[in-house]
Write a structure and sequence with these properties.
Layout (H helix, E strand, L loop, with lengths): L21 E6 L4 H13 L9 E5 L2 H14 L4 E5 L14 H16 L7 E6 H5 L5 H7 L1 E3 L7 H10 L3 E2 L8 E5 L2 E4 L8 E6 L2 E8 L6 E4 L3 E3 L9 H15 L7 H7 L11 H4 L15 E3 L15 E6 L5 H11 L4 E5 L7 E5 L3
Helix pairs in contact: 1-2, 3-5
């Protein structure tokens, strides 16, 4: 006997409709990776799929990291891009950690250059990350640098690019964001790479790109190309400095003589916490949604009225199954009807309740 058509189980991907939210309730803890992977494959297999199959908005950083590990285990064929939030409070006097900023810029740079891909890709982010505006897509795309052996790439030009985009000069490269000079050799540790690389120049020609062990300084492998992204979300150029000075004076008036931030930016120096004033360095800011045209947006929580401000995309909402103990439910019902009536349990179960108004 065949079950009715409306009772047959359907894939959540078959229920995706443009302009309609889709709620997946009762997803057990730890199974979000399987659900997201199936949805990503289904979206990527559809007609005219977007470059990013899904953009998943997690509650916080730990949940995003957990989902990234689950996707790496259940779906190693899906590329995962992470866009974390800053690890500091807004307008704090400290800058976000360089590793966090590098991860954000690397993801933005890849999103700005993505046109299409053969395998599905998923973007993971958090609520705090999507609430913060970022630089324009065109600005991020221009800041990236690609080099390959045999290309004419003056060493002075690459050093200038490293200085403008937040790399720190050091005696020996140890951490991401460092670079060192030794004659006609430039050692640098680019964000997102497992090991630093060594650029060997002959005049203005780049001869070779080799990765090496930072402890032993020995070469491990040769690279055919190298894609570099900034380690900061803005660069201190003449244009950005002028924009900051104009915006700062328009918002707060003339700067005081002891204003360390205004003085540092005017001189082209970096100052702790200057990343929080990012809107003053750019005349126009965008959101992460501007990097994701026509991409479904799953969420790890279900709001009462799912909506995306400034967007017509259809969100997909994945809600966890909630468990509530009998004592907690009884306490809440008792508190609610404490003044208006009495509560007594039915005989057919401890979780069933009958409300009876008390009479004077």
């Amino acid at each position: 006997m065949t079950a009715p058509a409306h009772l047959l189980a359907k894939s959540p991907a078959e229920r995706l409709k443009a302009g309609r939210p889709l709620t997946l309730a009762g997803v057990p803890d730890g199974a979000e990776g399987l659900v997201v992977a199936d949805l990503a494959r289904a979206v990527a297999a559809s007609k005219n799929p977007p470059a990013i199959a899904l953009a998943v908005v997690c509650r916080d950083g730990p949940r995003m990291a957990t989902l990234a590990r689950a996707l790496g285990f259940f779906a190693p064929d899906i590329e995962v891009l992470e866009f974390p939030a800053w690890d500091c409070l807004p307008y704090d006097r400290v800058s976000p950690h360089p590793a966090v900023v590098a991860q954000r810029v690397m993801t933005l740079a890849r999103l700005s250059r993505i046109v299409g891909r053969e395998h599905p890709a998923v973007l993971l982010t958090t609520v705090n990350a999507i609430l913060q505006r970022v630089s324009e897509r065109t600005v991020i795309a221009k800041q990236s640098l690609s080099v390959a052996p045999g290309n004419v790439a003056p060493m002075a030009g690459i050093i200038q690019w490293l200085e403008l985009n937040g790399f720190n000069r050091a005696a020996t490269v140890r951490e991401a964001g460092d670079y060192a000079l030794r004659g006609g050799i430039v050692d640098l540790f680019a964000p997102g790479m497992d090991a630093p690389v060594r650029l060997d120049f002959f005049g203005d020609t780049l001869e070779s790109i080799r990765s090496f062990d930072p402890e032993t300084q020995r070469t491990t492998s040769e690279l055919r190309t190298l894609d570099l992204v900034p380690v900061t979300e803005f660069t201190l150029t003449g244009e950005t400095i002028r924009a900051f000075r104009t915006g700062y004076v328009a918002e707060f008036g003339a700067a005081a003589p002891d204003d360390a931030l205004y003085e540092a930016v005017s001189e082209g120096r970096r100052h702790a916490g200057m990343e929080h004033w990012l809107p003053l360095f750019h005349r126009r800011m965008e959101t992460l949604f501007d990097y994701l045209p026509a991409t479904p947006l799953p969420s790890s929580r279900s709001p009462r009225k799912p909506r995306m401000s400034g967007s017509r995309r259809s969100p997909i909402i994945i809600r966890r199954a909630r468990t509530r103990s009998t004592k907690t439910a009884a306490a809440r019902r008792t508190s609610r009807y404490r003044r208006t009536g009495s509560i007594s349990p039915k005989a057919n179960g401890a979780n069933a309740w009958r409300l009876r108004r008390s009479r004077a």
